[in-house]
């Protein structure tokens, strides 16, 4: 799907036709097809290492913190006492790294379909794969849409750090998966899923909001800025069985705040304030 021309990688994807983000490449560090997807890891000129799955940029070392911090800390701080957490996807380990900052967690189940993504991260992306070193983490290699059906009433917070709805991630954008997420959450639980881009994937975002509204008493959509994602931003679709989502329920310590680059309690609240076209769109649903 993607091509490298004159040293530039261009992200050409049917999900965002007619546009492409290009990144200058210095070296290809890894390129192989796993059982589930094409995995490429490049050293870029300006963004450090860049992980690409099936031609789609998953992260760059330069701006991954924005996505990992927001996808993790928004649902985690919205919950008053998250002790059991599930991560679906996120084979790079970045969300696990962020979860590691929360002492209240007792255990973390991790479920990714493709062990090769983890292996590549452990070899090339140690600043994210360090998340796997947390002794509270149990690694499960499984399809998240199947794993979820086997766990009922188990988790306080579930984070779905999936790739896009083409390839192995497709089932993670469908209603039966969200029904499974709801059933796997304890009373008062919160789910946060990779919510795509409201400029570029309008239909997909509408669908995710509709599904979560139908299933959860409280639903909200948040977003963060990430230059290497299409449109320069990415959404988080959230559903809650109890806690309000846009206000942190716990206070962040000074030590943790100083260790972060993007998340603050103010950004938490602000990330739920959407452009007017989104307000109109969600009103129509
Ligand atoms: N934030 C990233 C992005 O750009 O969308 C996602 C990063 S993370 C690397 C995506 C992970 O989802 C990959 O490790 C991939 O193997 C995993 N994944 C895809 N489909 C899955 C499924 N059905 N069950 C569990 N994990 C899945």
What report would you give on this structure?
The protein is an alpha/beta fold. It has 2 domains: 2-58, Roll (Spermidine Synthase, Chain: A, domain 2), CATH 2.30.140.10; 64-284, Vaccinia Virus protein VP39 (Rossmann fold, 3-Layer(aba) Sandwich), CATH 3.40.50.150. 29% of the residues lie in helices and 31% in strands. It has 10 helices and 13 strands. The protein has helices spanning 64-78, 94-99, 115-124, 126-129, 144-147, 175-184, 202-215, 254-259, 265-270, 276-284; strands spanning 3-5, 8-11, 21-33, 38-44, 49-53, 56-60, 84-89, 107-112, 137-141, 155-161, 185-194, 218-225, 233-240. Strands 9-8-7-10-11-13-12 form a 7-stranded mixed sheet. The protein has a 6-stranded antiparallel sheet with strand order 1-2-3-4-5-6, covered by helices on one side. Strand 1 and strand 2 form a beta hairpin. The chain is globular and about 50 Å long. S-adenosylmethionine is lined by residues 58, 67, 88-92, 111-114, 117, 143-145, 161-164, 168-169, 171-172, 194.
Per DSSP E runs of 2 or more residues, the count of β-strands stands at 13
* Estimated structural class: alpha/beta
- Number of helical segments? 10
Euclidean distance between termini CA atoms: 33 Å
Unique ligands: S-adenosylmethionine
């Amino acid at each position: 799907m993607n091509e490298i021309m004159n040293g530039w990688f261009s992200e050409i994807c049917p999900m965002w036709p007619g546009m492409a983000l290009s990144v200058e490449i210095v070296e290809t560090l890894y390129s192989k097809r796993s059982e589930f997807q094409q995995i490429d890891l490049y050293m870029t000129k300006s963004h450090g290492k860049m992980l690409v799955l099936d031609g789609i940029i998953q992260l760059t070392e330069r701006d991954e913190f924005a996505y990992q911090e927001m996808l993790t800390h928004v649902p985690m701080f919205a919950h008053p006492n998250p002790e059991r957490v599930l991560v679906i996807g996120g084979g790079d380990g970045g969300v696990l790294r962020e979860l590691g900052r929360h002492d209240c967690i007792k255990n973390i189940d991790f479920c990714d379909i493709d062990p090769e993504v983890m292996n590549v991260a452990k070899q090339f992306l140690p600043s994210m794969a360090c998340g796997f070193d947390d002794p509270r983490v149990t690694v499960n290699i499984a399809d998240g849409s199947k794993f979820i059906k086997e766990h009922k009433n188990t988790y306080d917070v579930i984070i779905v750090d999936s790739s896009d709805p083409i390839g192995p991630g497709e089932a993670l954008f469908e209603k039966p998966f969200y029904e499974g997420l709801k059933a796997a959450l304890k009373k008062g639980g919160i789910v946060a899923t990779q919510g795509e881009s409201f400029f570029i994937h309008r239909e997909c975002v509408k669908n995710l909001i509709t599904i979560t509204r139908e299933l959860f008493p409280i639903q909200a959509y948040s977003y963060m800025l990430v230059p290497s994602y299409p449109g320069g931003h990415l959404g988080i679709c959230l559903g809650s069985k109890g806690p309000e989502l846009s206000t942190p329920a716990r206070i962040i310590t000074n030590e943790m705040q100083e260790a972060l680059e993007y998340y603050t309690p103010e950004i938490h609240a602000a990330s739920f304030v959407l452009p007017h076209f989104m307000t109109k769109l969600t009103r129509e649903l």
